[in-house]
Amino acid sequence: MEPASQVSYFAALELPEQLSIDRKDLEARFYRLSRTLHPDRFARAAPEEQQRALDASALLNDAYRVLRDPVARAEYLLSLRGLVPADSKYVPPELLEEVFELNMALEEVKMGDREAIPQLRQSHKSFQQMLAETDHGLESDFSAWDSTQNPELLDRLRARLNHRKYISNLLRETEKALESHVSD
Amino acid sequence: MFQIDFGKSEESILGIDLGTTNSLAAVMEPAGPRILTGIVPSIVAVTGDNTVVAGEAARTILLHHPERAIYSAKRLMGKGIKDVEAERFNFVAATDQAVDSVVRIAAGGRIFTPPEVGAMVLRELKHLAEEATGETYSKAVITVPAYFNDAQRQATKDAGRIAGLEVLRLVNEPTAAALAYGLDKRKAGIVAVYDLGGGTFDISILKLQEGIFEVLATNGDTHLGGDDIDNLLIQVALEDIASEWHTDLSNSAEAMELLRRSVITAKERLSFELSVDLEFEWNGRKYQRTLSREVFQKLIEGIVNRTLGPCRQCIKDSGVSVDQIDEVVMVGGSSRIPMVRNAVEVLFRARPHTDLNPDEVVALGAAVQAGILGGSVENQLLLDVTPLSLGIETMGGIVSRIIERNSTIPASASETFTTSVDGQKNVRIHVVQGERELSKDNRSLLVFDLKDIDPLPAGLPRVEVRFLIDANGILSVTARDAHTGREQSMDVKPSYGLSEEQVEAMIESAFENAEADFAARQAAEARVEAESILAASAKAKTSNAWSFLSKEDQHAIERAEADLVQAKESSDHRVIKGKIEALDHATQALAENIMNSAVQGALKGTHI
Question: What is the pLDDT of residue B22?
Fold first, then answer.
């Protein structure tokens, strides 16, 4: 038997390496496998068997946690192919203007200028929209890769994931600023 | 020939709710879980003859000799002396604390660690359960607050081992409550469990589906509960008393304990009445204050509100909306307070469930989990989560999270470490638990040193460390050289808690003394009971009712008293118990007389 750490998350859930996964089906697999693998089922077994159940169950839970989240799932698949997500610290060129304006607004709000709040709200809305668009793009990347397994698609996927990570960071920052300055 | 009885069923596993204030044990039976012990106070005390008792007997001692008793020790589980400085425990020993990281508790001239105190309560529960069924129990499922960290869980497990129990599983209290409820209603849905106990608060949101109990998120405060409400009321009474009597009672442990009893009674009655009288007598003086529910609610508003923040965070983390939550289950004695119920109803927009006794539901659930482990409950499975994120300290004291909170357990994560200097042989790693950015703001769990790394240029060695949180929520760490696959040697130093050697030594001494201890304890318990019945009898003799008794009856009582005073010194509890019963019997007529005159007195509107 392979050591638990060598088994891929896809294999742990008895799935092929694919990007589009149905949540309901994934949950059903997780519950079914949990029923047989969970340490509770081995409370009266020998210590080695208990240890094996513990390892198998940890792998199953880790796998479910990653695969049920589309972004984490895609990043995981990239890592299996030796592709590390690029550094998300650089600003994607297409976002330069947005980021510049947002930073100005954030700075003003921090200084106590409440007039910048509508600007923040506007940014918040547009980031939400961008995120939705990116997610839409991800979905089409997913199905394209699932049907062709064309390695070039992975580069596109990686770029889109970076783009998404950047937007969601901006979104989080905007939300935090709105929460702390609008409530009071 | 050998006769092997294959038909004999396996030993039952106890389900134990080890609470801050009270504890209970239950077992799973074919008809469902059943409480075996009744409510046992989580109190440990040292008797006048230096025997350690737990439960009811210890509570009697707490009332009259508080300096010999320990209560609410669960609040000290898995803590260091720094953590408890802010607590107003009069029994935390201040000396000898630097030796290691476990709090020492002094009572009756002896020193205990919190796991040892927990072990005494567990042993009492074990004995009571064994008395109730005639079976022997050596295995248990013990519940812990869902928000307990690694050190607190480890301390609870140590307590079980010291008590001679193999702890098969630690189960989170709110999850146990859900299991107890789930037995009756096997339906799909989202359930929130709100658990406000004596010392801790937990909130958990679960998804139920075909016997699977999947915890989606949990949150809480291990330092919030009924004790805090009691302390507020005590504060109010102390201020009143200080201005009325011009005395500060807070230095008298006995007065404080009596006052605590009084405020608890008032608090409990306020759940059913709109106004109560808070009454307290000390040294012949009487303090009385009318307390309306309205005033009470204003007083505890802050405490109730403190439970709502964790609830909101838990809803957010669970990924469900409030509307999707079908039911809310209320657990813990403080969930009886109407204001608490209202707040929960408003927040969750669902009627709180109170069908099961909130004091018993956790122990019942622990018994269900015991049934799952023992194999008698087949279709149910609990998938719980870790309440706090696990992280490692990186450059600048910043935490890098490796297992996020609310991850289903068992959960694991692997990290690869390397060296920063050529030829470096050791790497030190600090593991913390919590949600804060900086390492120092989180709970330190352990420090481990990877040792004997091959002396290579900086950055070349690769040591893969695997962090594994088991189904009890307890962390273990293993390491291997990623190049060779060989196991990497390391030293692990837990930041809090007893060492393996300390636990072993405690188990050994408990085992050696088990039989003698048990007999001595039973005698000591009987002695405590004897003293309290003798005191009651002495008091009764000063009442009017005494003079209405025949000379014969009076003699009989005095003889029974003398017998008991003599028997009290026996080391056999049965001898003492026998004389207690005799005195009890002899004083029956007297007790009835007192009751009658009390009733008559009440009818006349006078006090006796």
Answer: 93
Residue A58, chain B, CB below 8 Å: the answer is yes
- Contact list in A for residue B468 (CB cut-off 8 A) is 54-55, 58
Report DSSP state, residue B560.
H
Domains of chain B: which residue ranges? 14-224+304-383, 226-300, 390-497, 512-604
Q: Report the top-level CATH class of B14-224+304-383.
A: alpha beta
Q: Is the dihedral of CA B567, B572, B576, B582 positive or negative?
A: negative
Q: Are the C-beta atoms of residues A81 and A8 closer than 8 Å to each other?
A: no
The verdict on domain B226-300 having CATH code 3.90.640.10 is: yes
Residues in B whose CB is inside 8 Å of some CB of A read: 10, 168-169, 209-210, 212, 214, 369, 372-375, 381-383, 407-414, 466, 468-471
Check if B517 is active-site: no
Cis preceding linkage at B30, omega within 30: no
Query: What is the residue-wise DSSP string for B31-70?
Result: TEEEE-S--EE--EEE-TTS-EEETHHHHHHHHH-GGGEE
Q: How many Cβ atoms are within 10 Å of B224's Cβ, its own excluded?
A: 21
> Choosing from B173, B359, B393, B517, which is the catalytic residue?
B173
The CATH class given to the B512-604 domain equals: mainly alpha
> Which amino acid is residue B86, in one-letter code?
A
How close does chain A come to B444, measured CA to CA in Å? 23
Report pLDDT digits (tens) over B362-408: 999 999 999 999 988 888 999 999 999 999 998 888 889 999 999 99
Catalytic residue among B150, B195, B359, B531: B195
Q: Mean pLDDT by 10-residue block, N- to C-terminus, for chain A (184 residues)?
A: 66 93 95 95 92 95 95 90 71 77 80 78 86 90 89 86 86 82 57
Residue B93 CB partners (closer than 8 Å, separation 6+): B104, B105, B106, B111
Partner-chain residue, chosen from B214, B375, B410, that has the shortest CB–CB distance to A58: B410
Answer whether A59 touches B (CB < 8 Å): yes
- The predicted-structure confidence for B93-150, as pLDDT tens digits, reads as follows 655 555 457 888 888 888 888 999 999 999 999 999 998 999 999 999 999 999 999 9
Per the CB < 8 Å rule, is A62 touching B372?
no
Q: How far apart are CA B473 and CA B156, in angstroms?
A: 12
Is the CB of A7 inside 8 Å of chain B's CB atoms? Answer: no
Is B558 among the residues known to form the active site?
no
Express each pLDDT in B526-575 by its tens digit. 888 888 888 888 888 887 778 878 888 888 888 889 888 888 888 888 88
Q: Name which of B210, B407, B410 is nearest A57 (Cβ-Cβ).
A: B410
B83 labelled catalytic: no
Exposed/middle/buried for B82, CB within 10 Å: 0-12, 13-18, 19+? exposed
**CATH T-level topology, domain B390-497:** Substrate Binding Domain Of DNAk; Chain A, domain 1 (2.60.34)
Q: Do B381 and A64 touch (CB under 8 A)?
A: no
